[in-house]
Structure formats: structure tokens, C-alpha cells
Design brief:
With 491 residues, this protein is mainly α. The protein has a domain at 274-491. 76% of the residues lie in helices and 3% in strands. The chain is built from 21 helices and 2 strands. The chain has helices at residues 2-22, 25-48, 79-98, 106-125, 129-138, 140-150, 155-188, 195-199, 205-222, 231-238, 241-266, 268-273, 275-294, 299-318, 323-354, 370-383, 390-405, 407-432, 440-446, 454-472, 475-489, and strands at residues 58-66, 71-77. Strand 1 (58-66) and strand 2 (71-77) form a beta hairpin. The two termini are 28 Å apart.
Amino acid sequence: MELLLNLAIFLPLFSAVTVALLRKEKFSKALSVFTSFVVFLLVLYLFLNFQWGGAEFQYTTKINWIPQLGISYSVGLDGMAVSLLLMTSLVFLVAFLWSLKVEDRPNLYFTLFLLLETACLGVFSALDFFLFYLFWEGMLIPMYYIIGLWGHDRKVYAANKFFVYTFFGSLFLLLGLASIIVYGYVVSGQLSFDYMFHKNLSYPIWLQSLAFLLFGLGFAVKIPMWPVHTWLPDAHVEAPTAGSVILAAVLLKMGTYGFVRYSLPLFPEASQQFIPLIFFLSLVAIIYTAMMAIAQTHIKRLIAYSSISHMGMVTLGTFAMDTNALNGAIYMMIAHGLSSAALFMSAGFIYDRIHSYHMDDLGGLARYIPKLSVFFMLSGLAGIGFPGLAGFIGEFLILLGTYKKFPIWAFIAGVGVVLSAAYFLYMYKRVIFEEESLSDYRLEKWRHLKDLEWHHTLSFVLIIAFAFLMGLYPYPFVKLVEQTSKYVLGG
């Protein structure tokens, strides 16, 4: 079983090297889809065989790598990690399917996405700080080139902004890692990057506070939290569709994953100390960026702001110090990954057909591309937490758990749920309906629009099916994330 996890992590890397060396367009596309499908099956097998009541970390592998520095190749999964791995492998499979018609430098395109998949799977699996940071930084380079080479008009500006912000955050994360590594060496005489070694140490409050802020800055940029969020709308607007899908569904979750995996268990007293600050930043993100979304006429920018608002809900639940709220936060990471991927696919498809993201150029599409209209609606309902879909379970658990100790904060966060319905319905009405506002030229042009092709339809079906599964039968997913919540919070 341990071998399967390692195979899932590094199979995309092996395929990336193969694609880069052979440079055969059809082969590159076929191998990328096949690789992502195999990785998804491997992770699904690990997911289905995960023991809810077993050890905190399962499928573990630990091999001495640089023993002189206490660095090892150490990977393993808990309930949160295996759930995020399943979502990540599914979203990458969908991204590869969606990209089958890419004609601009396809070999390089698929090579970068395969490298990115290995980095993302590695981040969620690493149990060694050095290995974690290696994967964390490793995902930056492929995404930078994906935005910069296959993006839209201001792609270089967006790619540079993405790189500067995330690299800036990573420097603070590196300082935080260095602080606890040095402290561990001073108190124990042992130089170790092992996660469990540091989990069992007791840090003084001054170091906890310092390290929490350093780690937190690195994670906050990645989420992104307000006010370090401004890189995300630009990156989403300029990125190609598959890039936006991975950015929203996977990369944003690394920040919230970091808070749950590292900040809460390693710095418990500091986490309690900074609750008011985190809550304030989270609620500003929930309300402010939801209002910003309502003000947008560019559909990708609207969806980007909605992602920031939803991630604010995740950080609120993470620091509510309640098992239900933390369950909901982890659950919502996965639910938002699915809904945001589907929403960006919808926006990307509209651009492919009409070459515009602006609502003023759209309208009346329900008559001419009905399949997309249906999937677009289901994607939005998943995003706003409609009952029966995954987002509802996550939001309900977050608000329920937060209300126990912080009822006022929970009430304010609930306003964000209402606003999310407002901006989605506003966007959907303007893009899909309002046919009467169209000129004769556009009506004639719309009549020749081609609806979803098979690879588009399959991509939507995979995402929406999982959103319904998690919304209608949440029990196994909740039990898995609860294993992590109890480990982090006790109980």
C-alpha cells in the first residue's frame, strides 16, 4: 500500500520526462490523460482502504535521504490528506481531458501540468519539512510558465505578480521552518526535519507566536487571505482554463491545509492567541470580496473573488477550535475545489466559443448552448452551498461549529452565504438569459455556436457527480476528515 502512494506521487513526474523527451503531440496528450487516470485510480484505492479508526498517518514511507542534516524522504496520509489527494487527482484528470484540443506547444504544456501534479500531490503527502518545502516551491515554477505562456493579454504581468507574491510568502514560511528546526536542535541536540519529531516538542509561547506569524504569512498568501489577495484575480483572469482550474481547486487549498497540518498542532497556544486576528481577516474576506464579486462584469474575475470569499469561510472554520467547524473547513476545501473547477471550466468554454469574458458581450446562451447552461447552473449551485451538493455540508458544519463559541462571528459569516447566491444568480442571469438585449448580429452569431464536446461533457460529469456524492452521502467523507480534526484538536 505504501508503494501505491509513492507511485501516485511520482508517476506524473516520470510521464513528464517521457513527454519532454519524445515530443509527440498525440502521444503526449494520450499519456497525460492515461497517467492522470491511473493516479486517480491509485488514490481512490487508498481512499477506499483508509482506516478511519486507525493510526493518524497511514501508508507511510520513511527513507533516510540526507542523514547528516536529519532530512528524510517521509510521506504518509491522514484523513484530510487522503481526501485532498482524491480531489487533486480528480481535478488533474479533468484538466487533462479539458486540454485535449490544445494546439499551442502541447508537449511543453502537458509536461508542465504533469510536473505540477507531482508537486501538488507531494505537498499533501510530505511528513518531512524539507520535502514539504521542496514540493511547495516546486509547484511555483510550472504554474508560472502555464500562466505566462498560455494566458491571455496581460499574461506576463499576471505571471510575475503570482510569482512575486507567492515567493514572498514562501520566504516567510522558510524562516518559520528554520526557527523551529534550530529550536529543536538546541533543546534536543538532534537536527531533524521530521514532522512527528517536532509535533512532539513543546515550544515556548514566544517561539510559537513568532513561528505562527511566519508560517501564517506564507499560508495566507497562498490561500489568499485579505489583504494579500490581489494577485489571485489577475492570475485567474489571465490564466488558461486548465490553469485556473488547478489554481482554484488545488493551489489555494495548500494554504488552508498548512494551517491545519502545521499551525494548529505545532503552535496550539499561539493559534488560540491569534483567533481574533484570523476571524477579522476571514470575515473581511467573506463580506468584502463577495461585494467585490457582485460589482464585476468580467465572469472570471467574479469567480476569482468568490473563491477568496469561500476560502475566508474555510479559515474561519479552521480557527473556531471546534471539531464540527474544522470538519466543515476541511470538507469545504474539497467542495470548493470541485465547484470552482466547474465554474472556471464554464467560463473557459464560453470564452472558447465567444472570445469574451465580459457580461456586456454575453447573454441569451441558454437557447444555443443548453448543455453548458445546465452544467453552469449546477456548478454555481455547488459553489453557493445548495442543499444536496457538497458545499452545503461544508458551510453548515462551519457555521454550526463556529456558532457554539462565536455566535456573532457566525452570523456575520452567514451573510456571506446570502451574498454568494446574489452574485452567482446575477452572473447567471446576465450570461445565460437576457436574450432580448442581444443585437441581431449577435443572435445570428449565437445560432452557430457549438455546444459541449465529449471531453467537455465528461469533465463536467466527473466533477458534478462527486459534488452530488459528497452532498447526498457525506458520511464517509466526514468520518475521514474527522480523523484529522480529532488529531489536531484532541478528543
